[in-house]
């Protein structure tokens, strides 16, 4: 048996003894290469190997395949590379839920039209149980700059560092920990615990044996990278450490603190060599020239200072930024300083000339971090606008922008070979990017910020979404193509609803207004003003005559869609209104609030003198439902009007019997806050900050299908057909799904 064949046999899942169990019999006599290729484009093999060996082993199988024998076969290597990159992009999702394999392959590969890929997608659609099939290519496809996503931190990632051999990355987080990652596999090697609060800074010694971390607990810790254990702590004369670095000679640690001081420590003894105090505000960044002779510091006093590390004396100050200097880096030749500021700019300075050379570029928000490639030719900047930008240092041209983070990017580092970028973000993730290969941005269409709301027209042909990018988008539900966008709000679009005839869109915004739009033309019909805080939720009566809005100002307002007048205001909640829903008969309104309660109101539509009198006495409040232990984000009502379903921070859903006014049962399964709900027949759909969508059978009280997004899911809607579902992410992606029965 050849070495190649032996390697091929090792690829088979543990429970399989021969490839003929999963290959058509006519392939038994084909070559090793053809046999291998047939395996790796076969969905059943991919699914079995994932289940038996895990996602990383599956990725490694494709590395085995892309040897010279396969590369020589025209087109085969490209196809295998697409599948491998898809699995790598999906690794953080598949590691948590292997059942998402089919959805991930379909949604990332659907845009590729080769026969092998189309056959793989067709195979993936044959699932044995109910599942959610993507209708459009809504995830980032392979072939772009994004290589993989690392998840595990539970709070902001504040800093990243890479070991000198380029094999490991270390991340520092507001969750009080540091994590060590294997870059080749994405595996979390260990977690470093010991800091008492936010860890803001991290560095690695030049010999790759120690990690240095700085925290707001006023300490600097030195860790043994091989064992993951703490060696010792520098403390006693520090204050809220914002930045750390190690001199290239490995002898000294430099720290910058919130009190404006910079300390130079002896790494062996922990003794303070210098305490530098010329900055008039906090020091947020420090860097050292390659010869270990000069220190550069950036401060909240908007300045950059250059220090002599041999004498501890300040050499000179560079001014020109209009806000905090958050980041500094030095080019490999030691001649230039790169600085990033809260004024949004990246500036380049001459150390020898003690002057600003030029402004490299600008972000639309504060710059959090900068890095220089090992060849000194490119600068990478990370910013609060959620992007990373790569600049050519010689031509001063922006080369490309990375856009897959969904929150400010706080940290960036470049691998020693200059081929990859590692970034850390307030979205709690670390992302690994191709710097040398891959197209600039292959993210699929969506919004530029959180999608907070979605709705579907009564005829099931269009989906409407509202976003933190201030826009409303109208989509073709069958194709997922954006038809047009509506703009007019001056803040986040928080909520949308449609009239029953699907001719008008109702939107509520952070600008405190409710707007009514013509769906076909995008023309604004009315603007309702009167709320004193964000409008978080809107609903429309079945007859299309009234719109209801719930606001952070604790009130619910009822508006005439015929005249534009405010008809009623309901008040009684002790906190902001998060969600409103109507019973199918249009007579009752249910509101969900941050005060942990649901309230059921009469809309006063009864043609009854006694009911009118009662509403007057009770201010239209019928009853209150109590049982949640934290704020409620969402409420929905079943089509028969018998049950209300609510969800919020507690991670569970509560189902209420509206006739008995009592909790009927609880549905448990989410791992984070429930953000939105929808119902159709006897099913309910919930989405959560745990990145999942769950479809519940309300009769069996079980999850019958699930879908996992790339980020927190913030909105959902069900089409009238009861099987087409739209879900939207904090990333701006909108997913079009179909609930399929198993085959």
Sequence-ordered SSE layout with sheet pairings:
Elements: H1 3-11, H2 32-40, H3 43-53, H4 55-65, H5 68-71, H6 76-89, H7 91-94, H8 101-109, H9 115-124, E1 131-134, E2 146-150, E3 157-162, E4 168-173, E5 177-182, E6 187-193, E7 199-204, E8 210-215, E9 220-224, E10 229-234, E11 241-246, E12 252-257, E13 262-266, E14 272-276, E15 283-288, E16 294-299, E17 304-308, E18 314-318, E19 325-330, E20 336-341, E21 345-350, E22 355-362, E23 367-372, E24 378-383, E25 388-392, E26 398-402, E27 409-414, E28 420-425, E29 430-434, E30 451-456, E31 462-467, E32 471-476, E33 482-487, E34 493-498, E35 504-509, E36 514-518, E37 524-528, E38 535-540, E39 546-551, E40 555-560, E41 566-571, E42 577-582, E43 588-593, E44 597-602, H10 609-618, E45 621-626, E46 632-637, E47 643-648, E48 653-657, E49 662-667, E50 674-680, E51 683-688, E52 692-697, E53 702-708, E54 713-718, E55 724-729, E56 734-740
Antiparallel strand pairs: 1-56, 2-29, 3-4, 4-5, 5-6, 7-8, 8-9, 9-10, 11-12, 12-13, 13-14, 15-16, 16-17, 17-18, 19-20, 20-21, 21-22, 23-24, 24-25, 25-26, 27-28, 28-29, 30-31, 31-32, 32-33, 34-35, 35-36, 36-37, 38-39, 39-40, 40-41, 42-43, 43-44, 44-45, 46-47, 47-48, 48-49, 50-51, 51-52, 52-53, ...
Number of domains: 3
Strand content: 35-45%
Give the CATH level 1 class of the largest domain: Mainly Beta
Structural class: mainly beta
Which outline best applies?
globular
Number of helices: 10
Question: How would you characterize the largest beta sheet?
Answer: 4 strands, antiparallel
- The main sheet orders its strands as 1-56-55-54
Overall pLDDT = 92
Assembly state (oligomeric): single chain
In CATH, the topology of the largest domain is named: Methylamine Dehydrogenase, Chain H
Low-confidence stretches: 1-5, 13-30
Helix content: 10-25%
Quote the distance from N terminus to C terminus. 39 Å
């Amino acid at each position: 048996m050849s070495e190649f064949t032996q390697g091929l046999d090792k690829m088979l899942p543990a429970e399989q003894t021969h490839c003929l169990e999963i290959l058509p019999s006519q392939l038994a006599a084909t070559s090793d290469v053809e046999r291998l290729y047939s395996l790796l484009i076969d969905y059943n093999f991919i699914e079995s190997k994932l289940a038996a060996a895990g996602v990383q082993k599956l990725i490694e199988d494709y590395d085995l395949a892309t040897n010279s024998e396969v590369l020589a076969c025209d087109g085969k290597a490209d196809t295998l590379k697409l599948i491998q990159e898809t699995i790598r992009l999906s690794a953080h999702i598949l590691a948590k839920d292997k059942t998402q394999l089919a959805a991930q392959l379909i949604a990332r590969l659907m845009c590729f039209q080769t026969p092998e890929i189309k056959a793989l997608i067709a195979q993936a659609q044959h699932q044995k149980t109910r599942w959610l099939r993507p209708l459009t290519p809504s995830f980032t496809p392979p072939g772009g700059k994004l290589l993989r996503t690392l998840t595990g931190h539970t709070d902001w990632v504040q800093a990243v560092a890479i070991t000198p051999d380029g094999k490991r990355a270390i991340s520092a987080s507001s969750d009080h920990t540091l994590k060590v990652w294997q870059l080749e596999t994405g595996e979390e090697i260990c977690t470093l615990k010991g800091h008492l609060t936010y860890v803001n800074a991290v560095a690695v010694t030049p010999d790759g044996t120690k990690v240095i971390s700085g925290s707001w607990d006023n300490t600097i810790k030195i860790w043994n990278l091989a064992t993951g254990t703490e060696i010792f702590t520098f403390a006693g004369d520090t204050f809220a450490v914002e930045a750390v670095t190690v001199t290239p000679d490995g002898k000294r640690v430099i720290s910058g603190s919130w009190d404006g001081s910079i300390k130079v420590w002896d790494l062996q003894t922990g003794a303070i060599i210098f305490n530098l105090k010329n900055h008039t505000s906090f020091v947020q960044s420090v860097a050292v020239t390659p010869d270990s002779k000069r220190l550069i510091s950036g401060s909240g006093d908007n300045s950059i200072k250059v220090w002599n590390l041999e004498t501890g004396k300040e050499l000179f100050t560079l001014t020109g930024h209009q806000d905090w200097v958050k980041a500094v880096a030095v080019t490999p030749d030691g001649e230039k300083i790169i600085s990033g500021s809260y004024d949004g700019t990246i500036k380049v300075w001459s150390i020898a000339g003690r002057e600003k050379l030029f402004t490299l570029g600008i972000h639309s928000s504060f710059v959090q971090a900068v890095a220089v490639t090992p060849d000194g030719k490119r600068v990478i900047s990370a910013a609060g606008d959620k992007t990373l930008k790569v600049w050519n240092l010689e031509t001063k041209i922006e080369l490309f922008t990375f856009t897959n983070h969904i929150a400010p990017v706080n940290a960036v580092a470049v691998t020693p070979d200059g081929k990859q970028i590692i970034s850390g973000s307030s979205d709690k993730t670390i992302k690994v990017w191709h710097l040398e290969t891959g197209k600039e941005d292959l993210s699929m269409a969506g919004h530029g910020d959180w999608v907070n709301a979605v709705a579907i027209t009564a005829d099931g042909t269009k989906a409407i979404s509202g976003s933190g990018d201030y826009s409303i988008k109208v989509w073709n539900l069958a194709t997922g193509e954006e038809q047009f966008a509506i703009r007019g709000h001056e803040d986040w679009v928080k909520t949308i609803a449609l009239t029953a005839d699907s001719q008008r869109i109702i939107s509520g915004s952070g600008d405190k207004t409710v707007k009514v739009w013509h769906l076909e033309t995008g023309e604004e019909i009315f603007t309702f003003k009167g709320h004193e805080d964000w409008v978080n939720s809107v609903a429309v009566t079945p007859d299309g005559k009234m719109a209801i809005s719930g606001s952070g100002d604790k009130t619910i307002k009822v508006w005439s869609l015929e005249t534009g007048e405010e008809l009623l205001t309901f008040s009684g909640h002790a906190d902001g209104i998060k969600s409103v829903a109507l019973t199918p008969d249009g007579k009752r309104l249910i509101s969900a609030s941050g005060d942990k309660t649901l309230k059921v109101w009469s809309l006063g539509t009864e043609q009854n003198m006694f009911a009118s009198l009662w509403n007057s006495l009770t201010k239209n409040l019928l009853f209150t439902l109590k049982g949640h232990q934290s704020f409620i984000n969402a409420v929905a009502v079943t089509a028969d009007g018998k049950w209300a379903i609510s969800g919020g921070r507690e991670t569970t859903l509560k189902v209420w019997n509206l006739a008995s006014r009592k909790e009927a049962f609880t549905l448990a399964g989410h791992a984070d806050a429930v953000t939105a709900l929808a119902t159709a027949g006897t099913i309910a759909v919930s989405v959560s900050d745990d990145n999942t969508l769950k479809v519940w059978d309300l009769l069996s009280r079980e999850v019958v299908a699930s879908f996992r997004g790339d980020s927190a899911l913030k909105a959902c809607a069900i089409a009238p057909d009861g099987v087409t579902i739209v879900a939207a992410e904090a990333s701006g992606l909108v997913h079009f799904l179909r609930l399929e029965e198993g085959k």
